[in-house]
From TrEMBL, chains A, B:
One MF term in the entry's GO annotations: DNA binding
Keywords: DNA-binding, Transcription, Transcription regulation
Protein name: Helix-turn-helix transcriptional regulator
Domain HTH hxlR-type: 19-111
Taxonomy, superkingdom: Bacteria
Amino acid sequence: MAKQADSKKRSVRGSRSGRPIMALLDLLGQRWTLRILWELRDATLTSRALRTACDEASPTVLQARLTELREAGFVELGEGGGYGLTPLGRELCETFMPLHRFAARWRSKSAA
Amino acid sequence: MAKQADSKKRSVRGSRSGRPIMALLDLLGQRWTLRILWELRDATLTSRALRTACDEASPTVLQARLTELREAGFVELGEGGGYGLTPLGRELCETFMPLHRFAARWRSKSAA
DNA sequence: CTTATTGCTACGATAAATGTAGCAATGGAG
DNA sequence: CTCCATTGCTACATTTATCGTAGCAATAAG
């Protein structure tokens, strides 16, 4: 299994400003990152279950994001398999959980 | 070939689940979207100032994102020029403002 | 052995983003 | 008026990211 020590190119794209918020914004601004965190918000999912939950996204990106999220310390792979949030990841998830409520109000206003 | 700002195909990619949170997650999960909202959090910026703030991102994507954000009702173009958040956009920005604090703690843990 | 999971990877086809250049429109300054 | 600098915005070739399908090694039964 695996590899996670790809730390050679860990430069979250775009922002090398050094400011943590930028690194975080860039990480979260990649395809499927937010979605993965959201789907893991209250469940441990296997890679394939996660794929299903994520609208059958290609495993290529999913694995890439999971690797990044693990390196960031937000996600971990459990002993007997299955991905779940770390305490830190759960904390992050809580941070944008209010988005859920906001999204509902938003759609009721601008739903095209 | 070139096609952009096609206001017709607003299908936020991937998730057509109908759930507002998914649409929002997909919108925010595009490159520069979070960053743009962040940079506009407390200032009205011209397109070029925004570009500078966003690490000189290409105007192509920036314009595309701005169009999407305007259609979503989060960003607006002021009378005399310059982009700013709408009340709704400001609300959204407040939602993930705690990320700032989180990011600081996060980096102090995982950043080697 | 076969079957069915697990996490994960290869790789050609697409879609998206980059970087550079430039447009029309507006607003001064001379 | 011309000249120039700014606004928001676009063209387009190159590069990068993502998709989609297939399949791998490892593990665990049956």
